[in-house]
Amino acid sequence: MINTQTSPELKGCVVLSVQGVGKSYDSFQALQDLSLELHAGEITAVIGPNGAGKSTLFKIIGGELTPDQGLLVWPSHFKRARIGRTYQLAEIFRHLSVLDHLHLALQAASSGTWSLFSSFSSEVHTQALEMLVEFDLKHLSHQRASELSYGDVRKLEFALACAANPLVLLMDEPSSGMIEPERLALMHSVRAWCERTQCAVLFTEHSPELVFEFAHKVLVMSAGRLIAQGSPQEVQNDPQVQSVYLKTKVGV
């Protein structure tokens, strides 16, 4: 079986604390004194207008950018390789099969490196076959990524992000470009994975329906600051959120 076990002591605990983080691009302040917490087994959505700082926040958590101020506090045993990431535009190798994508992701997760020209161990192959079933990709195992529907590409990208059994999973507009049934199916899969592995999920999404149906907690950003956070119901009823964001999205 795929190793998706999480230490019992992590369940419900803080797996990331962002403390007073700031980031500037020349004279533009992208993030200002931003603080938040991610908890094991919890799906957190971050929403806000374009330019609110969501992408910068993701890049800092993912290690692509270094904050100018503030701290990111992880569990003492944390390894950065245990961050999973999906992007607004799916990133795949178009000429590789679904199965070989999983081979590469699992190889990288186990050894820290990967190669298109090396053979895969029997253990990696076995785990890849299990993931095909886990993520409903078995019927597509030998298809090249270029032959997949966009919804199946998104499903593959989600599987690849989970190959390392991440402690934190960052998802940038995971349903972008998908039709409604595919969007719902993907988010149900994310919820099931989060519950089973106690992974902490942070996602951005322009669909308020998906945010308020699937998030346990919602963070609202504007001009690089966190202006509200709470349950979906609390955020929907927040007057400042309604003024800055929701009135243009859901008519509240």
Low-confidence stretches: none
* Outline: globular
Q: Please report the number of helical segments.
A: 8
Order of helical and strand elements: EEEHEEHHHEHEHEEHH
Major sheet attributes: 6 strands, mixed
- Strand order across the biggest sheet? 5-6-7-3-8-9
**Which structural category fits the helices and strands?**
alpha/beta
Radius of gyration computed on alpha carbons: 18 Å
* Percent range for β-strand residues: 15-25%
Number of strands: 9
Helicity range of the residues?
25-40%
What's the mean pLDDT score?
88
Distance between the termini: 46 Å
Structure description:
The protein has 252 residues and is an alpha/beta fold. The chain has 8 helices and 9 strands. The strands form 2 sheets. The protein has a 6-stranded mixed beta sheet, with helices on both faces. A 3-stranded antiparallel beta sheet has the order 2-1-4, with helices on one face. Helix 5 links the parallel strand 6 and strand 7. Helix 2 crosses helix 3 and helix 4 packs parallel to helix 5. The chain starts with 13 loop residues before the first strand and ends in an 8-residue tail after the last helix. The mean pLDDT is 88.
